[in-house]
Amino acid sequence: MKTPKRILEKTLPTLKQIPLGVDLVEMKKTKTFYRLHRSRLNSFLSRYEMGLVRKSKKPVRALAEILAAKEALYKALKTDGRRSGGFETLHLTPAILKEKVVFIKNNRFAVALVVPCAGKS
Hints:
α2 (27-37) packs across α4 (59-79) and α3 runs antiparallel to α4.
């Protein structure tokens, strides 16, 4: 009979091989950042990402989610050994947001979980 400990011992090496990135961004800090630096967002956001912020009914929430997703993606790719560029070199696309990012809604934080190998490639 397989015990939970035995199952975990067999599963854990496989889980260690899955690159994963998680990040959370505080909404209060994002609101201040947005207010102070709104005109300079295009220096580190792509046109697509800027469009998401501009078109949103809640631009601060959209910005927080984008920042969390970019940082989580950066962490996931960095742990996978595939990333050498900086945060500003990452650009979210509709496919990445749809297939690779999970957002956890919370009033105080924007939380993003990224698994690069999930979904279609």
